[in-house]
Write a structure and sequence with these properties.
alpha/beta; 6-stranded mixed sheet; elongated
């Protein structure tokens, strides 16, 4: 049998003290390979040594390992040097497509942990794939000191020195093998055991038991159960299987995942120094899989990804848990033990520099826009940094965009009032089946990382845990993450085409008309340097026709070809679908839309101070839409608005000072007009809520669910009466946001004073904004008709 290749990782220290090799062997062949290596490489040194078998870290042997030899070694007076060794089995080169590689993994098993027959075959035919791994050596005295420091007397009662040494040997071998395999398989070992044994955990558990008035043993058992429920249990084999499965899965519906490898290389280097937290947008059930595959493909370790406990169903739950997902409950505010365990789990991951991931929005966006951030897990990470668990933590904003999304049909149904589908194996199979269509490509974009050390200042290791979600600094941090996600979200051909089509309502358009409609939009995208998915290919009829046909293929558009030329229109009941794609880039245009409406207001007859009224109206609209879009703080917002108008008309502020005629001239230089394209559906939905609130009794409890049902009915009435022009305005999601704004203004509190008057003022404010949007629409129509330039 061919011998194993030369050792890797650290060399055995050439010291005079006796060496004890801790042999981690899962089979007789591994035992023989390790003994042969020791005889070949250590015997010539003349240093005394012996070998002691320890429980194998990869799999259990049929017969247990005799602990007596290890116990005797630890009790020896000469303080021997302990050196762990094991055999590493390297996988063969990847060949063939993803399906073939997946089948090979499933049939042949884990190439890094082959069974005995396969071990013999690999050693005989591919000896280069057999490596001896040597971990860093340590004297018994050092290990005994670390054992005592790890947990004191209480720790010693639950874990003897021999068990501690075996665990440390396994961890040291993992680190040594990682240097051989790379960081792709950097996964934690003995997570529950390590956390439960920590003095800080044990001490906190005792204090918590006193606070809740329960026995420490009961609280400890509950904490152990909660930790098992939460913690991910990584398996390198499952990580490989999952990566190949993801490739097979996403390629059913998408041609590729596009991203900048340079971005991932920079993040990789950053993660060598500090823990990183990936915070992606959430558009589809494929989001995590796409990011996971890109990271795996570039040698990154798997993220510890927070998932809702609703996703922990068979067989998906156990599979994704072993590939890095940890499950947390949707609500646990009143469960002190659960919060305590989650805090310590996050502390452990930050301290050990394992990368984390979760969706900053909490759930998938049903409207296409980025949702307001959730603060829970971010508060735990920020608190871990504040208490000195790491010198720094870097937040990585991630925008995930799709040419088209297979989930969008479910989103539109939910916007019309349907209930969210419950996750189950049947739901998962339906999701896979829906990937039979072609949806284009997936696009990942990574925003500028945010350093907690720079944002939060120095840490304080003596601070007590306090994951404060209400902290203003934390909320500003979360909003900055969201703003950076928006900043790198790419404009796709689909989003731009739907933006053009929705601006014309229900009117069908020819290819040439769409080309003309896109000209100003493309000019704006390029002039403002907005991120795109590449060459948008929408400057000529051929490129536009391809984009339209892709939307026809998935039912978003219809094409009528019975006349002189084909014409395209948004399909029946597909306005919310088209609006979803439009909304993914709406944040790039909302400031421009606000500027148009503020200019209109400044030019009205009752205005005395034109400049002051312009800024007052802009800030009123910013406040009206603050739950829909992420706006910069007030002064920065003013600068952004000024830059927006300057792009179209330099010297505009002087013109505003001169009055209505000059203001109208500035307004007409804006190309394209955006208010009717971007703000109309939101304001029409708000109008429905405002009108419904006016009719609500000013006394009695406010039943939000019943109120939203009435809003859906009123919106349908308005649509049939043509009192609202945009079919996408009939959206429960938009009504919910409008109700949130009404709550923020104290309009649903039955005990509030002058409630009826303030509700009427709210409705009037929305109607006034709508009138200005309609005026912009008239200007846009006049431009198309050639009446204005």
């Amino acid at each position: 049998m061919a011998p194993a290749s030369t050792a890797v990782a650290t060399d055995v220290p050439l010291r005079t003290r006796r060496v004890v090799f801790l042999v981690d062997a899962a089979s007789p062949l591994e035992q023989r390979l390790l003994e042969d290596w020791i005889a070949q490489h250590h015997v010539p040194t003349g240093i005394a040594y012996e070998t002691v078998a320890i429980p194998p870290s990869r799999r259990r042997r049929r017969r247990g390992v005799d602990r007596a030899a290890l116990e005797g070694c630890l009790a020896a007076p000469d303080d021997p040097l302990l050196t762990p060794l094991r055999v590493a089995w390297l996988p063969p080169p990847n060949r063939g497509g993803p399906l073939r590689r997946l089948l090979k993994l499933l049939v042949a098993g884990d190439p890094r942990d082959p069974n005995r027959a396969r071990q013999r075959w690999v050693a005989r035919n591919h000896p280069e794939r057999v490596q001896i791994v040597i971990a860093d050596a340590a004297p018994v005295s050092e290990l005994r000191a670390r054992w005592r420091t790890a947990g004191g007397a209480g720790f010693a009662e639950t874990m003897g020195l021999a068990d501690f040494v075996v665990r440390q040997a396994a961890l040291a071998l993992e680190r040594a093998e990682r240097r051989l395999r790379g960081l792709r398989y950097k996964v934690p070992r003995f997570v529950a055991e390590s956390i439960l044994a920590r003095p800080a955990f044990q001490g906190g558990l005792t204090r918590l038991a006193q606070e809740v008035g329960r026995p420490v043993a009961d609280v400890g058992r509950e904490a152990a159960r909660d930790l098992r429920e939460i913690a991910a249990t990584h398996s390198p084999y499952v990580i490989d299987v999952t990566a190949e499965l993801i490739r097979v899965l996403y390629s059913r519906g998408y041609s590729a995942i596009h991203y900048d490898r340079g971005d991932l290389a920079r993040i990789y280097q950053l993660a060598q120094r500090h823990p990183v937290v990936f915070l992606p947008s959430h558009k589809s059930n494929l989001d995590h899989l796409a990011l996971q595959y890109a990271l795996h493909e570039n040698g990154h370790p798997p993220n510890h990804t927070a998932g809702g406990i609703n996703m922990n169903f068979l067989p998906v739950g156990p599979l994704v848990r072993r590939s890095g997902v940890f499950f947390i409950r949707r609500t646990f505010k009143d469960d002190a033990v659960y919060k305590f365990v989650l805090c310590h789990y996050v502390d452990y991951l930050i301290e050990k520099r394992f990368p984390l991931e979760w969706y900053i929005e909490g759930g998938r966006s049903r409207s296409g826009k980025l949702l307001p951030p959730r603060f829970g897990l971010l508060a735990y990470v920020a608190d871990a940094y504040r208490r000195g668990k790491s010198e720094d933590v870097h937040l990585i904003p991630v925008a995930i965009a799709y040419d088209q999304i297979q989930d969008v049909g479910d989103y539109t149904a939910e916007q019309r009032g349907a209930k969210k589908q419950r996750e189950s194996f049947g739901w998962f199979l339906r999701m896979v089946r829906n990937l039979r269509r072609r949806y284009g490509a997936i696009h990942l974009r990574f925003g500028e990382p945010i350093s907690l050390a720079q944002v939060m200042g120095p840490s304080n290791p003596d601070a007590e845990p306090n994951a404060d979600e209400q902290s203003l600094a934390l909320q500003k941090l979360a909003f900055e993450v969201s703003a950076r996600i928006n900043r790198v979200t790419p404009v796709t051909p689909t989003s731009l085409v739907t933006l053009a089509l929705l601006g014309r309502g229900d009117r069908a358009q020819s290819v040439d008309e769409v080309v003309i409609a896109l000209q100003n939009l493309l000019h704006y995208v390029r002039g403002r340097g907005l991120p795109t998915t590449g060459d948008l290919d929408l400057d000529d009829a051929d490129g536009v026709r391809r984009a339209l046909d892709r939307l026809v293929e998935n039912g978003v558009l219809t094409c009528f070809a019975g006349g002189f030329e084909p014409v395209y229109a948004i399909g029946p009941d597909q306005h919310l679908t088209a609006a979803y794609y439009r909304n993914t880039i709406a944040h790039f245009y909302v400031n421009g839309a606000i500027a148009e409406m503020a200019l209109l207001r400044a030019a009205e007859d009752d205005v005395q101070d034109f400049r002051a009224e312009f800024w007052a109206e802009a800030l009123r609209l910013r406040d009206l839409l603050k739950f829909e879009f992420f706006f910069a703080e007030r002064e920065r917002f003013r600068h952004e608005l000024s830059d927006e108008i300057t792009f179209h008309a330099t010297g505009w502020e002087d013109a505003v000072e001169r009055g209505p005629v000059a203001i109208q001239t500035v307004l007409k230089r804006i190309r394209p007009f955006m208010a009717h394209r971007i703000l109309l559906p939101f304001l029409e939905a708000y109008q429905v809520v405002g009108d419904a609130l006016e009719r609500e009794p000013a006394t009695g409890a406010f039943d939000e669910s019943a109120f939203l049902t009435r809003c859906m009915a009123l919106a349908e009435q308005y649509r049939l009466q043509h009192r609202i022009r945009s079919a996408e305005s009939v959206s429960r999601v938009l009504f919910e946001t409008a109700v949130r704004l009404a709550k923020n203004r104290g309009l649903v509190d039955p005990d509030a004073s002058d409630l009826a008057t303030r509700r009427s003022a709210f409705a009037a404010e929305i109607r006034a904004a709508l009138r200005r949007v309609e005026a912009i629409d008239v200007l846009a129509a006049s431009r198309r008709a050639g009446l204005i330039e």
